[in-house]
């Protein structure tokens, strides 16, 4: 029971990380530029497997930390956002 609760808590935290990253003004602008719908990407996040979600959350967290530290430019962050959003959509489409 503790394992199930721990897994659910971890999943919720991973969803929050990915959704927070995609909700930033930079992310919304990047998605808009590429024609991706923010709401569709956001709605797809809960459909990811725990492993997929954990991987994307780690990547989003790392990118945000690097950007905050000045290690990434806006352009680099934009590419990462587009890659993460595309990965979410592709994973969900492949499951369908």
Largest sheet: none
- Rg, rounded, reads 14 Å
Helix proportion of residues, in percent? over 70%
> What class do helices, strands and sheet pairing give?
mainly alpha
* Strand segment count: 0
SSE topology string = HHHHH
- As a percent range, the share of strand residues is under 5%
Number of helices: 5
* Net shape: globular
Spans with pLDDT under 50 lasting ≥5 residues? none
**Ends distance:** 30 Å
Oligomer: single chain
Query: Average pLDDT, to the nearest integer?
Result: 92
Task: Describe the protein's topology.
Blueprint (H helix, E strand, L loop, with lengths): L1 H21 L2 H10 L3 H7 L5 H19 L5 H22 L1
Written overview of the protein:
The mean pLDDT is 92. The longest helix is centred in the C-terminal third of the chain and has 22 residues. By secondary structure, the chain is mainly alpha-helical. It contains 5 helices and no strands.
Structural features:
mainly alpha; 96 residues; 0% strand; 5 helices; 82% helix; globular
Question: What's the short story on this structure?
Answer:
This protein has 96 residues and is mainly alpha-helical.
